[in-house]
Every structure is written in structure tokens, then in C-alpha cells.
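Q: C-alpha cells for this one, please.
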Amino acid sequence: MECSPSSSSSSSSSSSSLSSFCILRKPCPSLPSFTTFYRKQQQQQRPVTQLSAVSYNKFIHLALDESKRHTHLVPSPLQERYNSMISMDGDAELQMLSFKAAKIRLLRSLCIETQTMQVLDFAVFPEPEYDMPIFCANFFTSANVNIVVLDLNPLHNVIIEREYRDKYYKSLIPLGVKYAELLPWGGKLTSESLKFFSPIVIWTRFTSSSNNYEILYSAFMDYYKAWLELMDQAVVETNASQIKRNREAQHRYLTWRAEKDPGHGVLKRLIGETQAKDLLVNFLFNGIDNLGSKSFLEYFPEYCCEDGTINQNRSIIGKSYENRPWDRNGEFVSNNFEN
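A: Here is the predicted structure, written as C-alpha cells:
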């Protein structure tokens, strides 16, 4: 869950006592179709106090319906193991869905609802034969604040690879500009995280209101429809070296996210360190074990401590972007940072 890109925001996700929690896994039912399964899971959900007029389950439901218009989704093998987790006292429920399709290696969602917060982590990863961006929607809502990251995460570095940037984002810049005005930049973003975002990324914070939620819902659907259109147009890669490059790029992305995702603290508080790590590595960022073999420190050696362990800080360089680092034309503004 990429709920909070900046290092200062992630510190609020520190762990607390887990002694009162346990995990109850529900067996996965027969799945005649993905829509039938989704509705069954909705019926099984425990009632919670809604923090907003918009439930993130609505986002998932409509995203799946929209996906059905473009491709044939089938349940992922992950669905049997990762479907639902509930805390022993009933304060937290984690609902998970996962699917695959011809061009989609994994479409998965995690929705958490408690009496004090809501979380949505929705992502779609392409097969390595395609260099499409990764669809990423991470929303966190509490009584006082909403933290949002919405993007078509680039598979390759758009700051230095202009051809890739133009291929996937040139036509989407007006869409990004529209929502950048409606959902302003959310504050400091570390330079390390920036390499995984595109010129149309929405990184914002806002207070709860029906108008803000309507804007967020509109942005989510417009971005997802744009991603599905890119998928429709995508042509399978046949060059073995390019497929290998795509595979490594996705593995590098997954390795970073599993290790540095700010949502780790929330999961750790709810289900404990062991289960949180399992959920991150084997569900949310599934593919680490089969898309590549490099370790985190092989990709990011600058995070290596003297004793060989991984530096737990989110930023090593120490630079962060207080304002949006892309202009209205999608050009990167390299000097728009603070130490």
C-alpha cells in the first residue's frame, strides 16, 4: 500500500501491540464468474461505520465491471489463499480479490475497513510481454485526512527514457493536468520514490467532503479507463531481450514496493509482522519470487548498511519534492526539490 510517499508521513504507521489480534481465513468459494464472486464477498462483509459517503468497495466493483468490457478476467490462483482476514475483536477486516487475463499477469485489490479508517490498494500488473505501465491506486482515509496516490506507474524511467514517456503518457498529459488542478500536490515526495511515478501522478491530501470524493472517484475511473485503452492497444513483444528487460523492470518495481511500502506499518499493526510481510511479498507485490532473482540491495546498493542489512529510511539522498516536479507539458523540472 503506497499510502504515504514521503518519509515524514510513513513514520505515523509505526507498530503497536498485536497481542489482541489473530487471523481468520475464510475458505474461497466456488467461482462461476468474477462478478458473482465479488457480490458474494460483499454479502459476507461485516458492517462497519463508514467514514465517508463513498465506500472504496464501490471503486473496486466498477473497476471490475469496466475490466469486463475489455478483457476476460478469471480468478487468480492467489484467490484461494488470499481472500479475507479479520481481527479477533472484529475491528479490522481485510478483503482481497485477485484475477488474471490475457495481457494481465495480476489484477488485485486489498480493501480494509474499520471504524476509524478505510484503505484501498488496487493495482494491475501486465504480463512481461508488454511494457505497459502498472496501474496503481492507493487511498487512505481516516476521520481527519485522506491520502491518495493514483498513477499509471511507468515500467521504465520516464525521466530519462523520453521515447517510453511519449509512447504512453504524451496523450494523457491533459488528463493529468485536469486532475492536478482539482487534487493539488500533497507535499514532500522523496526523490527515490519519484522514479516510480509518471508525469500524470496524483499525489494529494484532502479533508473529507462529498465533492472531494466525487472528484477522486472520477479521477480513479478516468485513469483506469485510460489504462484499459492502453492495454487494448498493446502489441505483444516478441524480442526476447526486451521481454527480459520488461521482466526485470517489473521485478525491480515489486522489490522496491515490498521493502519500502509505507502501508507496511498499517498492516503490521493489524495482522502482525509475519502476516504483513507475507501479504506484501506474496500477494500485493506478487512476482518477486518468479520474475527475477536479484535482491533489494542488488537493485538499490545505496541502502546497504555497514553490517550488510537494509537501511530502513525511505530516503538516502535526502531530497524531496515539495511541489509538483513536472510542468503542464509533462516535462520534468529537476530543480524543484528541497533538502
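A few notes: The longest strand covers residues 104-114. The radius of gyration is 19 Å.
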